[in-house]
């Protein structure tokens, strides 16, 4: 049964969960939500398992209509969201990171975020999508997953909700929803600092190149997408130094890997990255900062800061424990 209809699909909307971590031997990328922090908080606030499906919305400008009453939550990018009555009158301004009710025939409108790039719309019970290899994540480059396999949502698409998980909207949690600590709501403004774990190839970079790559502020390119965040170097010396890097036989890469192509403009691998890569790598963005990377918009800036494996392992384990992963 259709629970939510797409009236305007905006720039890019896909169904996402935690992806396919065990599918790389098939040549398929992991996929999944680019911002695990926002996705997991959305599910937790609704009492869903973390594996439930959410909608990943890039840069807002979408409209949905409810065919039944739904308990929902909006997390991620700081997006102005409003509920419209069937008479096209604004009845409520939706507060992000807090559950709300969308009644039958009401519409939810999202505008361009004030900050951040990706919003996550979650529903009590999770959206009912046929899984592929255990996941509902849409991966366009692989042509798999989602309502229409390998395709983003389009105007007129209808989404069902899992009936076995949906609760009664009169439950007290909707009137007194589980609060989220203020410290857990990200600030997407300003220059982002991404903590970096150096890989073994880091030691093969000469000292001058390492200093240039680590001591500059990069600008996010408009060519960025779910495969990777492309950065533009602001130092003319970078390209000269990276051209001297030795060639590399293609090898497996991870989400967060920072590739250094010959032009000196780093690429941060995101959820839909290819499974093999042939560029030298500076290191891997720490798990805790992948969500920050996913929320970067074209024109925004970032810098890298070295970290250590023991520290980042502790922070990742704490995240996994908190969300029962």
TrEMBL record:
Ordered alphabetically, the record's keywords are:
ATP-binding, Hydrolase, Nucleotide-binding
Task: Give yes or no: UniProt keyword S-adenosyl-L-methionine.
Answer: no
Q: Which domain of life is it from?
A: Bacteria
Which InterPro entries did the record assign? CT_A_B, Cyclophilin-like_dom_sf, PxpC
Please name the top-level EC class of this enzyme.
hydrolase
Residues in Carboxyltransferase domain copies: 25-320
Which terms does the record give in the GO molecular function aspect?
A: allophanate hydrolase activity; ATP binding
| E.C. number(s) listed in UniProt | 3.5.1.54
User: Does ATP-binding appear among the keywords?
Assistant: yes
Looking up PANTHER family in the UniProt record yields: 5-OXOPROLINASE SUBUNIT C, CARBOXYLTRANSFERASE DOMAIN-CONTAINING PROTEIN
Task: Give the protein's recorded name.
Answer: Allophanate hydrolase 2 subunit 2
Species of origin reads: Vibrio maritimus
């Amino acid at each position: 049964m259709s629970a939510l209809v797409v009236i305007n699909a905006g720039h890019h909307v896909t169904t996402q969960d935690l992806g396919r971590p065990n599918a790389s031997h098939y040549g398929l990328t992991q996929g999944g939500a680019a911002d695990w922090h926002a996705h997991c908080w959305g599910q937790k606030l609704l009492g869903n398992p973390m594996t439930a499906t959410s909608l990943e919305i890039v840069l807002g400008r979408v409209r949905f209509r409810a065919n039944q009453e739904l308990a929902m939550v909006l997390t991620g990018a700081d997006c102005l969201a409003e509920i419209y009555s069937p008479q096209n009158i604004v009845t409520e301004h939706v507060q992000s990171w807090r559950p709300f009710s969308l009644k039958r025939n009401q519409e939810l409108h999202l505008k361009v975020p004030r900050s951040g790039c990706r919003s996550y719309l979650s529903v009590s019970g999770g959206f009912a999508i046929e899984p592929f290899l255990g996941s509902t994540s849409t991966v366009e480059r692989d042509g798999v997953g989602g309502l229409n396999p390998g395709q983003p949502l389009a105007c007129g698409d209808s989404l069902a909700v899992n009936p076995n998980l949906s609760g009664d909207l009169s439950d007290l949690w909707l009137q007194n929803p589980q609060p989220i600590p203020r410290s857990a709501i990200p600030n997407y403004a300003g220059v982002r600092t991404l903590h970096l774990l150096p890989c073994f190839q880091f030691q093969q970079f000469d000292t001058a190149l390492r200093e240039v790559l680590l001591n500059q502020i990069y600008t996010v390119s408009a060519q960025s997408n779910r495969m990777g965040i492309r950065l533009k170097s602001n130092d003319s010396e970078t390209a000269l130094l990276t051209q001297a890097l030795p060639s590399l036989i293609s090898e497996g890469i991870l989400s967060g890997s920072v590739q250094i192509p010959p032009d000196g403009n780093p690429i941060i691998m995101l959820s839909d990255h290819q499974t093999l890569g042939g560029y030298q790598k500076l290191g891997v963005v720490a798990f805790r900062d992948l969500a920050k990377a996913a929320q970067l918009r074209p024109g925004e800036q970032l810098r890298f800061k070295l970290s250590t494996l023991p520290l980042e392992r502790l922070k990742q384990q704490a995240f996994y424990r908190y969300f029962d992963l």
